[in-house]
Amino acid sequence: MSSTVRSRALACRAAAPAVAKLDAVQKTALLHRMADALRDASAQVLRANAEDLRAAQANGTSGAMLDRLRLDETRMAAIVAAVHAIADLPDPVGQITQTSIRPNGLRIEKVRVPLGVIAMIYEARPNVTADAAALCLKAGNGVILRGGSEARHSNRAIANALQLAMTEFGIDAAALTLLDDAGRENILELVQLVDIVDLVIPRGGEGLIRFVAEHARVPVIKHYKGVCHLYVDAQADLDLALRLLIDGKTTRPGVCNALETLLVHADVAQEFLPRAAAALSERGVELRACEKSRPLMPNALPVSDEDYAAEFLDLKIAVRLVDDLGQAIVHIRRFGSDHTEVIATLDASAAQTFIAGLHSAVVMVNASSRFSDGGELGLGAEIGISTTRLHAYGPMGAESLTIERFVVHGDGQIRHPQTPIVAIATR
Amino acid sequence: MSSTVRSRALACRAAAPAVAKLDAVQKTALLHRMADALRDASAQVLRANAEDLRAAQANGTSGAMLDRLRLDETRMAAIVAAVHAIADLPDPVGQITQTSIRPNGLRIEKVRVPLGVIAMIYEARPNVTADAAALCLKAGNGVILRGGSEARHSNRAIANALQLAMTEFGIDAAALTLLDDAGRENILELVQLVDIVDLVIPRGGEGLIRFVAEHARVPVIKHYKGVCHLYVDAQADLDLALRLLIDGKTTRPGVCNALETLLVHADVAQEFLPRAAAALSERGVELRACEKSRPLMPNALPVSDEDYAAEFLDLKIAVRLVDDLGQAIVHIRRFGSDHTEVIATLDASAAQTFIAGLHSAVVMVNASSRFSDGGELGLGAEIGISTTRLHAYGPMGAESLTIERFVVHGDGQIRHPQTPIVAIATR
């Protein structure tokens, strides 16, 4: 098994330069063909997904996790649309991001180039297979996908469709390599393939990410849990705040940009918390509230520090009444995961304090946490949401899968034109 | 010892937010004061450096390594000037690098924020102490410096001067923490301080970098060796090429952007190699040349693959006659270290092929490899030259010590305004 991982990774590395050499027009055409191939294979993918769902249900998989795994016509159409959208994005490769002329006449350019080979290790959501493949190829990279066993059939069906289009286009399908799940052994080998793999992106449960982070020799961008907060300020529009709360908590509780904690300023708690409790309870959300907020929220259970730190990924929410904005910031810095935080306020200076006081990857003012997503932020799609403050932070699109290098144009400049050139004395 | 590293790193982390909160004007003022303090302490620093040099010579340290360690009035002035230059650079923190408005009215900004706490592990060159401290603080970070024992006194004297200015400015000096050398044990602990240190930058010999890379749990940006190439094309201006060769090889052979290998196109070898041999030999450079080039270079020794892969850091050069540009590219991809490569050519299409064919961090057209340096490329100074294709690639200035995050401004947008909000059925 081990040697298979290495040899397949080497095949991906060997195939990657051909992707890097495609120009913008060619890559756009390739990705549209891949999207079309995926659309044409929709029925097969849905059949494969049904198989995965049956197995998951037989294993007693929970509601929200099952939701992450499930595909239907609508979600398939969204996956295909995302690949088309990625195809039509501006090509990041070759972009000149900065230019300057030095006093000595040197012209310095910073130019985007592909990273090389990117390994994506993920669980559950089969759309990641298509998104990650399309984004990595758009950025001129080879990609190694290692999905979870629970989505095995779905991932295989999606990859098959994409690879078919690549082969027809004349690109070695090894540039998109899908490793079949074989426990964590193949992850262990994959994340140590220095000189073959340039970056590993783990995306999934905390256990998976810690496992990768602990064993990786290859650079890792971590996509840790999303413990996202909504803070309702003293100056909030409470109707607006309620909409953000319901959208953030209930429209898809199983994803990382769902809200997990509600913080409410004492001045508006009396009015807001009973309304929030009613709206959330009506939608089946279990409330876990602090001492001060419980009297305002019938049905609320007591909350613990573990709840404040938890990524429920389910219809549960932690609630805390805070004295002021400062206490909200302290709470988020202590319990948050640097993913996404939201403030509802009409006070621009409170918004500014909230933004400056937090170093989370995404900070929203009067907008739902559910927009913390590559597609929604204009990246076409995302390969993950980095909670590592390095290389990329927050939703990562194609641009995040490139690196800027220096290209310098001169006409004979040397560093020491005036200095007589002599051998150093010590020799 | 161990608990000291951890507690000192925690003190740095606690001091860092005060640096992050300084505005651009304050940071500029602070850094100018630090530069002045360093100038005022020049005599002490030079005395400390003399002590380090004596010890190094007693240990039999080699010419080029001794050169890296040595400070004199000129180099001290350059170090002070670099801190002033960093002070006057545009502040990267708070820069809005991208803005867009989504169809739903959301305004998306990407905004630079500090990384947090940066640990710099380095050897020999004491100027790194000042450069790294200034760059990290400019970018709003705390910095932990762990220099090599050979520069112990120099580093301590430089850090003392800088910390004095910080204290006078009202900034906790722990934001610039210098760990005294204590073998590799304190490195081992430092690079595993997840949640305290955000980034480790090792800069020094291959042994040090491999040690850090193998043991780090914290993200690492590696500054591996510089095996820099000059390729003299068939269409080169040979006088210009000779100047690039002499500047690149002989003006400071002990640094990573010095040339290590000369590749010459067969069409110009007859004319160029004897001139190159004469000019290099005259300056005390030992030649190690391939079979085809040795007849054109009197005194040249045979070259080996080990020589091609070597970072000599000394007055030695490997020479190879290549059939064409393609062979030069293949050679560099095989033996290079992704640091800096130079082409001498008047043929724009050859230059383009060279740039596209290589993925090194810096590619120069008709300019000396010695410009592969933060100061020379306009970054004010550099904290290192990344040969890791992640986060930063090539010389790293203050901007490379920040990360872009998302700030989103809305007026109540929610993700699912049309969808009736219902609890998911599976609960």
Automatic annotation (TrEMBL), chains A, B:
InterPro entries: Ald_DH/histidinol_DH, Ald_DH_C, Ald_DH_N, Aldehyde_DH_dom, G-glutamylP_reductase_CS, Glu-5-SA_DH, GPR_dom. One of its GO terms (biological process) is L-proline biosynthetic process. Its main location: cytoplasm. Gene3D superfamilies: Aldehyde Dehydrogenase, Chain A, domain 1, Aldehyde Dehydrogenase, Chain A, domain 2. Its EC number is 1.2.1.41. Pathway: Amino-acid biosynthesis; L-proline biosynthesis; L-glutamate 5-semialdehyde from L-glutamate: step 2/2. It comes from Pseudolysobacter antarcticus. This is Gamma-glutamyl phosphate reductase. One of its GO terms (cellular component) is cytoplasm. One of its GO terms (molecular function) is glutamate-5-semialdehyde dehydrogenase activity. Keywords: Amino-acid biosynthesis, Cytoplasm, NADP, Oxidoreductase, Proline biosynthesis.
